Amino acid sequence: MAANYDKLKVEVIDSGLCTGCGTCTGVCAAKAIEMDYTGDEILPHLVLDCVSCGLCVEYCPGKDIPLRDLDKKFLGRERNFNDEHLGIYLNSYRGWSKDPYIRQNTSSGGIVTSLAKYALDSKRVDAVIMSALKDDEPWKGVPFIATTSEDVDKAARSAPVMVPVNDLVVEALLKRKYKRIGVVGLPCHIHGLRKLQAAGKPKRLAEGISFMIGLYCASTYYWEGVRHLIKEFTEIDDLSKIVKVDYRGGKYPGGMYVLTSDNRIHYIAGKHDYTWHFLGAATYKRDRCLMCVDFSAELADISCGDIFQKVTDNPKIVSVLTRTDTGQELFRGAKEAGFIDFEHHPAELITASGMGWEAKRHAGMYRLLRRGKQGWPVPDYQYDLEVKMLARKLSFPS
Length: 398
Ligand SMILES: Cc1cc2nc3c(=O)[nH]c(=O)nc-3n(C[C@H](O)[C@H](O)[C@H](O)COP(=O)(O)OP(=O)(O)OC[C@H]3O[C@@H](n4cnc5c(N)ncnc54)[C@H](O)[C@@H]3O)c2cc1C
Ligand code: SF4
Ligand code: SF4
Hints:
Layout: H1 3-13, H2 23-27, E1 33-36, E2 43-46, H3 55-59, H4 67-75, E3 91-97, H5 100-104, H6 111-121, E4 127-133, E5 141-146, H7 149-153, H8 169-175, E6 181-185, H9 187-199, H10 203-208, E7 209-215, H11 223-233, E8 242-249, E9 255-260, E10 265-270, H12 274-282, E11 302-306, E12 318-322, H13 325-336, E13 340-344, H14 356-374
Parallel strand pairs: 4-6, 6-7, 7-11
Antiparallel strand pairs: 1-2, 3-12, 3-13, 4-5, 8-9, 9-10, 11-12
The chain binds flavin-adenine dinucleotide and iron/sulfur cluster (2 copies).
């Protein structure tokens, strides 16, 4: 009987609510579900008989995200009026790697890279699940298990495509038998893992995840958008000639560069160019991302994002929200060990940084309400939906 997988397929995958997070494939001890990378987009599919353990349906964050319960369980209380923009957090900082090379060669200033390195070096964890670009199709992302500081370097810089990070949870904790792991993921990855931890089973999985670093997320894009950008702005006729892609190369905030096998570097678009926003961010947004209302990884131990405003002379600085004691200790520990430095950052600047907050807390909220009124499939975030406009005086740095 394939009852549980059937439910996941009907209610989430075939209803357009799958985020691609990989929680279902990552918790399936029978390995009956796998992520399929062969189609246009990654999606879970059944490869063996479903043993009906029910874990995939229970922990899937595609349709049900019990934010209220998870806030209480992991952040100590329900959110109130003051938490409505960024969720519940302890402190707001801006931080940067103290290693100038890491600071320069990471997405926004290397906090995530440095925290992962610190956690491994200090033996707080045995491994960290992270994301890197694929070797054979380098415009796509894959999750991998970092166990050394050198491994962590492979994950530096963000890819705006969906990576099924949670797919590797069983691999790390049961197969490879690591005792404690960290995870770096987007808000939807964190939702799935918190559901697993809240249920407390399988125990080894629930207890083995020591910390989660969440990334602020406006959305991920369909690979088709990346293909389009390459086609329109380069003369590359065959994607197999691409040996490397860098989504945030060059001067901050970075742009998309492609290296071909003839050693030519092709520049496609700057992150804040109209081209990127029109053909990448806006047009090819994944459907499920349009219905997501968590911008700042509200359930992570520590959340990190860009600061698209000029607040210091060096623009490579990361906005950081610590949310749990675990996150606070990791952050302070990394500073004391000389990996990072940080200072206070006014949290109200975060909502006015880039288009992420707007995409989630205003447009996403509104879309959920509209779809709900029509009776179309929508994810349930448990809190009442309220559409509130925030005047942000948004401007991008030149
Ligand atoms: C899809 C996506 C959307 C984002 N949207 C926003 C936004 O709207 N606003 C904002 O302020 N910040 C956003 N960020 C976060 C931002 O790009 C940086 O990741 C963050 O500022 C941390 O910078 P850093 O220099 O510390 O990261 P780095 O030290 O460069 O580390 C980057 C980390 O990101 C992880 N990673 C890369 N790509 C992915 C992926 N696709 N899925 C999961 N993990 C990944 C890697 O494992 C790596 O550990 C987004 C990131 C991603 C991946
Ligand atoms: S767990 Fe994640 S990948 Fe699996 S069906 Fe749900 S949203 Fe999709
Ligand atoms: S927008 Fe939401 S669903 Fe989409 S990748 Fe980001 S966190 Fe996941």
